[in-house]
Design a protein that fits this description.
1% of the residues lie in helices and 40% in strands. The protein folds into two domains: 14-21 and 44-207 and 219-228, no CATH class; 239-370, no CATH class. The strands form six sheets. Strands 5, 6, 7, 8, 9 and 14 form a six-stranded antiparallel sheet that branches. A five-stranded antiparallel sheet has the order 1-13-12-10-11, with no helix packed on it. Strand 7 and strand 8 form a beta hairpin. It has one helix at residues 124-127; strands spanning 14-15, 32-34, 52-54, 61-63, 66-74, 77-89, 96-107, 111-112, 116-119, 130-133, 138-140, 148-157, 162-171, 182-189, 239-244, 249-257, 261-270, 285-290, 296-300, 310-315, 330-335, 338-343, 348-353, 368-370. By secondary structure, it is an all-beta fold. It is globular.
């Protein structure tokens, strides 16, 4: 059985926008910015919410037919463990949030061993995260070394216009940052545990500074590779970012870097009552954020009336158990000398070139401004 004493993060459900289709232009009032939110993207971790299929009629989560190979590096070398998700519901009560995992060790001589089952000791939906030691096929306190974490996180589903409390799976690693009990993972669709390939046949995701949100999950990768970061290391000063937030706002911002700080220029537009567009942007606010030292990060909230940044004493590894993801929009972090941006999962972004536009005139390329009376 598994144990965790981490407290529960309440589930948040907020209306953010008016659904999947572009809004009806006739519904907007003067100067409203009409958006097709389907072009906004989130960071794409190795697993997160990709472990399940959702039935919109019954609201049941069903584990996808896929298995995972975990590579675990510790003081005793490298170990490989196969994992699948067998259920999200308690067998007796049918209550949700009770994960059951199948866990199989790999032996270099005998291959994949018979799987054992581990059920979480409580519901991650109601009672907080559960962290699992895969080598012991049992849970541990989340303040100890762990390999797999199950927890509810606030996820922005831009196409549906919602921020929802979503059950996700996360692995103990940060791209390019060595950790104790470092973990990488590969996903094998349509493969049962006993039929997983030998670990040495699985390729490693190559390091990259460029985003590719469709990166190959069948390769061994950390929890969030740079390829899976919507902004990541692409910090071109001639780009403007449009950020949907759980505060019912669209934030427009640019980043300008010098040796010691990042200058952030941002403005906010508020979602209208009908949920089909945004009003005019506010006056642009400029804030200087001290750049983090190696292995550190700064959490940033784009709110002119609130302190920003906050949390500059955090290690990059603290993203594995982050502060409430509804309270910050993105983190600016430094790993291996590289500065990069990771998004809160409660936000989504659209990035495009300024193309000579002033920031105050920049609107997302797919938006429509209604200036008719």
């Amino acid at each position: 059985m598994c144990f965790s004493d981490r407290h529960f993060m309440p589930v948040l459900v907020l209306l953010l926008a008016g659904g999947c289709a572009p809004p009806d232009r006739s519904a907007a009032s003067d100067d409203e910015v009409l958006l097709d939110v389907t072009s906004f993207v989130r960071d794409q971790p190795a697993i997160a919410d990709s472990w399940y299929a959702y039935d919109a009629v019954t609201h049941i989560l069903t584990p996808r037919p896929q298995s995972y190979i975990f590579a675990i590096d510790d003081v005793n070398g490298r170990h490989h463990v196969g994992v699948d998700v067998r259920s999200y519901y308690d067998a007796d009560s049918a209550a949700s949030g009770w994960f059951t995992f199948g866990i199989a060790a790999y032996d270099d001589a005998d291959g994949w061993q018979d799987a054992v089952e581990c059920q979480t000791p409580h519901s991650v939906r109601f009672d907080g995260p559960v962290c699992v030691d895969l080598l012991q096929a049992a849970a541990v306190d989340c303040d100890d070394d762990w390999h797999l974490q199950a927890r509810v996180f606030p996820l922005l589903v831009a196409e549906a216009g919602l921020v929802v409390g979503n059950p996700g799976l996360f692995v103990h690693s940060v791209d390019a940052m060595p950790l104790s009990h470092q973990v990488t993972v590969s996903t094998h669709e349509g493969v049962e545990l006993q039929n997983l390939p030998a670990p040495d046949a699985v390729l490693t995701l190559p390091s990259s500074a460029s985003a590719d949100l469709n990166w190959e999950r069948k390769r061994m990768a950390p929890n969030l590779p740079v390829q899976g970061m919507a902004i990541g290391a692409d910090l071109d000063e001639e780009r403007v970012h449009f950020l949907l937030t759980p505060r019912r706002t669209l934030e427009r911002f640019t980043l300008h870097l010098d040796d010691t700080s990042a200058s952030i220029s941002f403005a906010s537009a508020t979602l209208n009552d009908e949920g089909d567009g945004f009003g005019p942007f506010s006056t642009t606010t400029d804030v200087d954020v001290p750049l983090p030292a190696e292995g550190r990060l700064v959490f940033v909230a784009l709110q002119a009336d609130d302190a920003m940044p906050f949390g500059n004493a955090f290690s990059v590894a603290d993203q594995l158990q982050p502060p409430d993801e509804r309270e910050w929009d993105f983190a600016l972090e430094r790993v291996g000398g590289q500065l990069r941006v990771t998004l809160s999962p409660s936000c989504a972004v659209k990035t495009e070139a300024l193309d000579g536009r002033d920031l105050e005139d920049a609107l997302p390329s797919f938006s429509v401004v209604d200036q008719e009376s």
